[in-house]
Amino acid sequence: MSTALTYLASLVVIVISVMVTLYFKAELERMFREKSGVFAFHVCNVLIILMASFAVHAVMDFMLKKGINYLQQMAILLAIIIPIYIAGHFAYEKYKFLNRKYLKTENGKVLIINEKYLRR
Hints:
This protein is mainly alpha-helical. The chain has one domain (2-117). It has 3 helices and 2 strands, in the order H-H-H-E-E. A two-stranded antiparallel sheet has the order 1-2. Helix 1 (2-31) packs antiparallel against helix 2 (39-63), helix 1 packs across helix 3 and helix 2 (39-63) packs across helix 3. The radius of gyration is 19 Å and the shape is elongated. The termini are far apart.
């Protein structure tokens, strides 16, 4: 039971961290005016999520007075993080695509304006 509680707490932190880091990644790419995704941001996001989830996992194990095998827990948490991060990334990209204000060409001209941003 204590193992399930520990992994449940880690899972909650992982899901919240994925949402927050993907939002920050998008804002950093917008700030640096990157046209395509930067792989280094993905690596940093996964490492940040791994550190946060491992910290929660270690605290839960300490509170429940269990021993911890660091390498095994890192591997298990990484196996949990990667699929959630990939699914979250695709969901966030779809959200950004559906809620974009306009579509630009390479020379900067606006092609399509989203109807919900037009004044009536």
